[in-house]
Amino acid sequence: MSGRGRTHRLWGVRTTWTTVGDGEFFCPGCGGDRNYARRAGRQRLTVLGIPVAGRGAVGPVVQCASCSEEFGVEALDRPTTVRFSAMLRDAVHTVALAVLAAGGTSSRTVTAAAAATVRSAGFEDCTEDQLTHLVEALSADSGRYLAQETEAGTDCPYSATLAIELHEALEPLAPHLAPAGRESLLLQGARIALADGPYNAAERDVLGTVGAALQLGGEDAARLLAAAARTPS
After folding, report:
1. Which of 52, 68, 124, 156 is found 20 to 30 A from 102 (Cα to Cα)?
2. pLDDT for 131-150, tens place per residue?
3. Is pLDDT above 70 for 182?
4. Is 200 in contact with 150 (CB distance < 8 Å)?
5. What angle do helix axes 201-213 and 218-230 make, rounded to 10 degrees?
């Protein structure tokens, strides 16, 4: 048995790790934001503990600085809780601006609803005037005029710039939201649009874009918007 034991230790594989980056991530093991080291390794065949031949690269892996557990680099795709909160706050702000651009800012009820929604999302100092000025500035930048009392059947007045911003703000966020979270975000926009009465055509168009960017099916989005319209404000 002693001979077999010595034979077993004649050769082996050794992995040498090198830290190639670091940062902060959401650690699946700890369940919170932690520092990490991104590590790449190389394997070598050893004989009597001496490296004699390379066996190629391994990894890279992400190692948590707190629990030391290692994960695939796809763990970095999940935003930190701080980043997630910022993404959600920006998404609500963008949706509110898009709905205002579609329906106009002449209704004090609508602008008040939009400002309250944005404040609840984390922009505590947001005012109606700030949102109105932002919508006007975006409208001027896009070469369009802000819609005032848009009637059903007219072309959608909200700018192509805001349509792009909706996709940029919502599409990266959608995979990290539960279905209820995506629905809630769409309904926040719906409640702003409904603050002064039924949706107009432009508002429906915007909310449809919101639903698509949030990866909600067309039928699901339509069902949610219809239910919101039937709910007393």
Report:
1. 124
2. 999 988 877 765 544 444 34
3. yes
4. yes
5. 130
Q: Which helix (H) or strand (E) holds 79?
A: none
d(CA 25, CA 23): 7
CA angle 161, 165, 168 (to 5 degrees): 140
- Locus of tokens 């996709």: 167
Token readout for 225 is 């918007």
Q: Can the peptide bond before residue 198 be classed as cis, meaning omega within 30 degrees of 0?
A: no
Query: Quick one: tokens of 41?
Result: 């390794």
> pLDDT tens, 60-111?
899 999 999 999 999 999 999 999 999 999 999 999 999 999 988 889 999 9
**151 secondary structure, DSSP code:** P
Q: Can you point out the beta strands (E) in the chain? A: 11-27, 32-47, 50-64, 70-72
Polymer length in residues for the chain? 233
Whether 52 shows a pLDDT value over 80: the answer reads: no
Strand pairing class (32-47; 11-27)? antiparallel
User: Quick check: pTM over 0.85?
Assistant: no
